[in-house]
Design a protein that fits this description.
The chain has about 230 residues and is of the alpha+beta class. About 50% of the residues lie in helices and about 15% in strands.
């Protein structure tokens, strides 16, 4: 059934009004499926969206997995169309904008939890491996957050010279390497450790500090610096 299909229309006016009132008075009190249900109701106003919300959460393993899922994957769920997919993706984009603002507001090293919250929200549920580099100035303020590489489900090639060259181009005083493990396990591999040490060594020669290499997974995160691996 497409989202424009009128089949299955129900008189959910009272139910949606109650959801709206709960959202306005205490949004945190809504269950995950109720949040998704209301988002979808804005995009598909003439349809009972509760079953679709529950189906989406089941398909993607929860609200985090749903909002961070690829738009094409969401669209493959029966009943979803461009407008309803866009409603979910705008919610995710807004959340990331809010979290990124928290990171950018203060020196990164003094705002570590905000950084982790932002990275988990953006990267933990990606189905392919992505490598990002966070560039900072001499005051450790974030000046650029860049996607460097995107690979398969378990590998995104990263080249030391590209990381360092970009840091030079941006005038970065320090960088933080970040990548996700689609498997969910954030434990660093031998290749992760070797890459980190190579970047650290190359950065030293040019006065570019490598503060950390953070690995994000659905099961948590790893910091190579905290683990004494760099």
């Amino acid at each position: 059934m497409g989202e424009a299909d009128s089949a299955g229309i129900t008189d959910g006016t009272g139910h949606r009004a109650r959801l709206r009132q709960r959202l306005l008075s205490d949004g945190e009190g809504l269950l995950d499926h109720e949040l998704v249900e209301y988002l979808l109701a804005l995009a598909i106003p003439r349809r009972d969206t509760k079953p679709l919300a529950k189906a989406l959460l089941h398909e993607f393993g929860g609200i985090a997995g749903l909002l961070t899922a690829d738009a094409e994957a969401i669209a493959r769920v029966p009943g979803m169309g461009e407008t309803s997919v866009a409603a979910l993706k705008i919610a995710h984009a807004a959340a990331l904008r809010l979290l990124r603002g928290e990171v950018a507001a203060r020196p990164v090293l003094a705002n570590w939890q905000a950084l982790l919250d932002y990275l988990r929200a953006d990267m933990a549920h990606h189905a392919i491996e992505r490598v990002r580099v966070l560039h900072m100035n001499s005051r450790n303020m974030l000046i650029r957050d860049e996607l460097m590489q995107e690979g398969s489900v378990d590998e995104a090639p990263v080249y030391v010279r590209e990381v360092i060259r970009r840091a030079i181009d941006l005038g970065s005083a320090a960088i933080i390497l970040v990548h996700n493990h689609p498997s969910g396990d954030p434990a660093p591999s031998r290749a992760d450790i070797e890459l980190t040490r190579n970047v650290v060594e190359a950065g030293k020669r040019l006065g570019i500090a490598v503060h950390d290499h953070i690995i994000i997974g659905t099961e948590g995160h790893s910091s190579l610096r905290s683990m004494g691996l760099m």
